[in-house]
Amino acid sequence: MKNSALVALCGAVVLIAGCSTLPKSDVTALQGRWNGRIVQGNPEHQCSFVISGNNYDFRDDTDTNIWYKGTFSLREDTVPRQFIAVIRECPSAQYIGKTSMAIYRVEGDTLTITGNEPGDPAVPLAFDGPDVARMELKRK
Fold first, then answer.
1. Which residue, of 30, 76, 85, 119, has the greatest Cβ tally within 10 A?
2. How many Cβ atoms from other residues are within 10 Å of residue 86's Cβ?
């Protein structure tokens, strides 16, 4: 399920405090509300994605039966960077507690996330790869 791969957005984040020489973590850059669309899949769907701390809330605005809440962690030392999501709540019981692997990039006010179906341990190789779900979002 491609839409289920969007869940791929959660875990735990460790922030290093008190060190002003470190660059800002992407966790800081991702905070807030993002609106956009799911661009892989037919038809395209409008969606929203809210990040607060290391929690996320994803909503498919076109199909209101598709939504996910959970936690995430980032791997900022990989290329592309990785977003590891753990699903805490969703309407599909088989995905609760599953991990979804995704890649992400932030370019200005645009966030692109591509993820695999929850439970698939593989990390997507490309933003437009086969059998993945991709979201393009703008900060709101």
1. 85
2. 21
